[in-house]
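User: Phospholipid/cholesterol/gamma-HCH transport system ATP-binding protein. Structure?
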Amino acid sequence: MIEIRNIQKSFGDRIILSDISAVMESGKCNLIIGTSGSGKTVLTKCIVGLFEPDKGDILYNGENMLEMQTEELALLRQKIGMLFQGNALFDSMTVEQNVLFPLDMFTSLSYSDKKKRVDEVLNRVNLEGVNRKYPSEISGGMKKRVGLARSIVLNPRFLFCDEPNSGLDPQTSLVIDKLIKEITTEYNITTIVVTHDMNSVMEIGDHIVYLHQGHKQWEGSNKDIIFSKDELLNKFIFASEFLQDAKQMRMMESNKKK
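Assistant: Predicted structure:
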């Protein structure tokens, strides 16, 4: 579980986050949503320790990260997995070497044990037989799954996913959402997903925090969001759906002309 209490963050005179509190529960997909500039990225960077908030507390399983010493922080970071928006794979390394990288960095396991673990997580994300391929030789969806395999190879207790469906087609996005949900539940991970994808919100949004101009505007589940009377949230949702529908209509018209 991750608990954030009264988080505030400013850059100069500009207030980015204002008094944000939330509890991100274990075994659930906790989503942070909002328009560009709403504070999603800054909040996430505060939670993982890349930014230090001006005020507030960030508790990992009851331990305040902001009060931890260097050694404690290092141990905590080994319990955190990251799935980056752009995958952040090393182009000069094979799939196997990319997934092996955290094990080489943070463990003293034998090579055979590390290789076994790499095979386990690649199998878990349905990527058997691609160990020796390079990122340039696999599809965007496969790259995302490699990134997911690497993010869980150290058995993290906390998983952060930054726009996991960015650049993916709808069908592949569903596959990634399903994997994130399954892994979260199976391993009882506290998962935080930053996303603009309303399909992801409705598919895996066990707990959703909607930010608007640096404030927590709304909080609830994907079931609650359907019945929300929050005007700003509804505008955000319907705008997202409108844009998706408009994109599909343009694609249909383009196909007709061909």
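The two ends are 52 Å apart (CA to CA). The chain is about 45% helix and 25% strand.
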